[in-house]
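=== RUN LOG ===
request id: a7f3
mode: sequence -> structure
chains: 1
length: 245
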Amino acid sequence: MRGLTGSGDGGSGDAVTDGGSGNRTGGGRGRRLTGWAASSTALAGLAVVGLFAVSCSTGGTGTRDEGPAGTQPVVRSTPASTTPSRARPTPRVDAVALLKADPKVSERVRTDLKPCTGDEYPVDTSYGKLTGGPGADVVVNVMTCGDSVGVGTYVYRPRADGTYENVFTTEQPAVYGTIDRGDLVVTTQVYGKKDAVAYPSGEEVITYHWANSRFSETDRVHNDFNRAVGAGEGDFPEPTEPTKN
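=== RESULT ===
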């Protein structure tokens, strides 16, 4: 910093004449200012290069490889709020009360309909759209307590006043009804004379569709079961090595 004051060693000597014009400048001071300015410019350039190198070497927070950052504001995504479901729960019905008060249910089924244990009745109930009524239709399956074999399938259609109407009834051994994509599917096990309850000979799968205020059969599939399955106590075959080409 001594060169800036013009004092000190050699600060007051050496004057330079500018091209004979008579203008004199302090040679020592001018040279020192020029050298200091050049050094400052060089240092600033090195600082810029250093900052650029550091920013390029950092991942994710420095200068991006594809070019300088744009001037557009950063768009922040906000998680979508979860809207609670407004669907009303399907009202449940007393299936046992429906069956016992329904004259379309045979007297035998109504008489035999008793709890298996405690107050648990052998009744399965399904709710869904079958007839296009004002609410969910109800499919009721009645089974035996001992081996859970179906003895009757019934479909109840809701009325506008909250009561239910029986629109389908089938009573036979090993029958069971379900709702499948708006259709009623009734499966009946087929037994031969020597068939055990656990091993029927086959089954009938019948699909019903609601149209013109009634159910009509639209599809029927018969399946024959292999009677040899489960008949013996054979050992499993020994595993073999896979064949290699």
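=== NOTES ===
Confidence is low (pLDDT under 50) at residues 1-44, 46-67.
The longest strand covers residues 214-224.
=== END ===
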